[in-house]
Structure formats: structure tokens, C-alpha cells
Design a protein that fits this description.
2 copies of one chain form a homodimer. By secondary structure, chain A is mainly α. Chain A folds into 2 domains: 66 residues, Arc Repressor Mutant, subunit A; 62 residues, Diphtheria Toxin Repressor, domain 2. In chain A, 65% of the residues lie in helices and 5% in strands. Chain A contains 8 helices and 4 strands. The first copy, chain A, has a two-stranded antiparallel sheet. The first copy, chain A, has a two-stranded antiparallel ribbon with strand order 3-4. In chain A, a hairpin with a 7-residue loop joins β1 and β2. The longest helix of chain A has 24 residues. The termini of chain A are far apart. Chains A and B meet through α5, α6, α7, β4 and α8 of A and α5, α6, α7, β4 and α8 of B. The structure holds a DNA duplex.
DNA sequence: TAATAACTTTAGACTAGACTAATTTACTGC
DNA sequence: GCAGTAAATTAGTCTAGTCTAAAGTTATTA
């Protein structure tokens, strides 16, 4: 039962509103997603049919366990991508969020896992960490001359040379 | 004049067919994109209206200069992402292509540029290159113990220690 | 408690993009 | 040069997702 990007957006928005307000109203979602109220009503009915939310007409909106599970997964993906874009690629936070928001519906779980592992490594690895350039992200601006070698490479090579003596 | 993902797919498919066959036919595109012939006809009319392809009914399909420009850009994005997924994250080539195919319509140019810079660095940097694990991609499996340090980090530290003596 | 405001839903229209079935056109081999 | 086949187009249908406008429901407050 694969949800469309659009329905995933609704579900995620509901989750995010509930995190702050304990229960969501249609208007909250409409504002958040910048769509008409009637579009929300429409989406809610579908999500109810899929047993992802609890919602009677004119009533508040809450998530079912399954809805919560899926929403959390979406939020997780969103955060992983936002993180990757800002931390590794040093993309500004608005663009990073926008990109995350669209690709989170597309990239399969296994691939997101790889992003997580990669991010973890970057954070744990001494050498990786050292190469992080404030405001530019991991390594992005690190290649500084025509020799195709960054400062860290050169340092490394010098050390290699010394330690091989 | 932003094209939809779907129209971009058609344009890219046309480009790829033309690369091999000098001119494309509707059936080629239909097979490539796995859609009905009539869907292709439909898309072609829109692309003609946008001056991205040359095509008279029942005739062959070629790209206009503008169409070529856009198609090339799409192919470029596709390749950058495929590269990133296979080379850095060590995703299998099918999945990598699928992911590339969907996010190429979404990620803005500036962000793709960052991916390129990142890939370039990974290829140029001695230390980065050394950490590439065959079959697992750059660094992915490099963190091997509870000390949160990979082999390369340790090596590096040992060298640091020796060279500081 | 009645009026009003705010919210929600319904009804109906529209668009993009796909499909099938029927028709039209172009090509190929005799 | 014509018959048969392959390809392309047209016509019409369907779905998902959006919208506006109107009507219905709930909540607030005088």
C-alpha cells in the first residue's frame, strides 16, 4: 500500500502539527501545506480509509499507530536528507529543506540507510572531521590548487614520507 | 517555463534515442518509458508547442537547440546522481539509476553542482580514495570498532604520533 | 439563547497524465 | 503500384489532485 507523495505530505504535516498541539485540525494542515481546506478534507477521507488517521467529520485529527509509524519514517528521511544537504554539502537550510521534502517520498529506505551510515562516518572519522570547512561543508572547498591535491592530502603525504624514513 | 517531471522524462528519452539512432520515432520512446503510444503522441505535441522538439505528425522526432540544451542538463544530473549513489554510497546500479531518474527532476542545479564538487574531491583526495572499500563504497564500512574510529583514522593517528616525536 | 464568526464539508469544475479502441497514415515486398 | 503490416494519431475515458463557491456545523460571546 504505497501512498502518493501528496498523501505522504498530508500525513507528515499531521504528525508535525500533533507534535506541537496534541491534535490537528484541517485548517492547520491547509496552512502548513498551502492548499485549500477542501483539499485537506479530501485527503483526510483517503487517509481514514487507509486507517492511517482517526477523523470523523468536523472532528479533530489524530494518527493511528500505523499512521504514526509511517509519519515517523517520513520525518526520519526528511531529517537525514536535510542533514546531509546542510552538513555535507553545505546547502543553505531553506534549499536543503525543500530538497529533503521532495526526495523523501522517492528514495527507498535502504538508500536512506546508506546516507545515515555515511553521515555517521563523516562525524566519527578524525580525518573526515578535520577536513570540514566551516560554512562550506565537508571538503567542498578543500581542493585548492592545480595539483589536484588538498591541504589535508599534502599533510598526509608529508607524514607518510616522514614516517617511512 | 518549468517542465513537469513527466515531460522531462520524454525529452530525456528522446535525447537518448537520438544519441544512438540519429532520429527518434514515437514507438522508441513508448518502449523506453513503458507507456502507450498515444501517451507519447500527447507529450510530443506539448514539447512541439514548447519548441523543444521538431515533429510533424507521422514524422520523425528531432530536438531543437533549446530541447538539446535541456536534455543534456537532465542527462548530466542523472549521471551525477547515478555516480554518487554507486560510487560514494555503493548502491547497486539498478537502484542507483531509479533514484537518479526520479530526483533529477527535483534537485536544483546549484545543489547538483555541490554533488559534483563532492565527487571530484572524493576522487582527487588521497586519503578519501584510500578509504574506498571495494563493494561498499567510500568509507561506508570503515568504522570497525567501538572506539568510533576506522582503520584509516588509526593509521593517521599513529603517523601523527610518530611524526611528532 | 441567539447571532455571528470560524471552520469543515459538499458539489462541481478543471488539469495533467495515463489508458484503450478505433482510425488513419506510411512503408515494404511482391 | 497496390496489399498488408506496422506505426501514429484521434477520440473518449479514467484517476489523482487541486481549486472555488456554497452550504452546513460548531464554538464564542453578547
Amino acid at each position: 500500500m504505497k501512498l502518493s507523495s501528496s498523501l505522504e505530505d498530508y500525513l507528515e504535516a499531521i504528525y508535525n502539527v500533533i507534535k506541537v498541539k496534541t491534535a490537528a485540525r484541517a485548517t492547520d494542515i491547509a496552512k502548513k501545506l498551502n492548499v485549500a481546506n477542501s483539499s485537506v478534507t479530501n485527503a483526510l477521507q483517503i487517509l481514514v480509509n487507509h486507517d492511517l488517521i482517526n477523523h470523523a467529520p468536523y472532528d479533530i485529527i489524530t494518527l493511528t499507530p500505523e499512521g504514526t509509524r509511517i509519519a515517523k519514517q517520513l520525518v526520519w528521511k526528511h531529517e537525514v536528507f536535510r542533514d546531509f544537504f546542510t552538513t555535507v554539502l553545505a546547502i543553505d537550510s531553506d534549499t536543503a529543506n525543500q530538497c529533503a521534502c521532495s526526495i523523501e517520498h522517492i528514495i527507498p529506505d535502504e538508500v536512506v540507510e546508506r546516507f545515515v551510515q555515511y553521515l555517521d562516518f563523516e562525524r566519527q572519522c578524525e580525518y573526515g572531521g578535520k577536513r570540514w570547512v566551516e560554512g562550506f561543508g565537508f571538503r567542498r572547498n578543500a581542493v585548492t590548487d592545480e595539483n589536484d591535491q588538498c591541504e589535508v592530502c599534502k599533510e598526509g603525504q608529508e607524514k607518510d614520507a616522514r614516517s617511512e624514513k
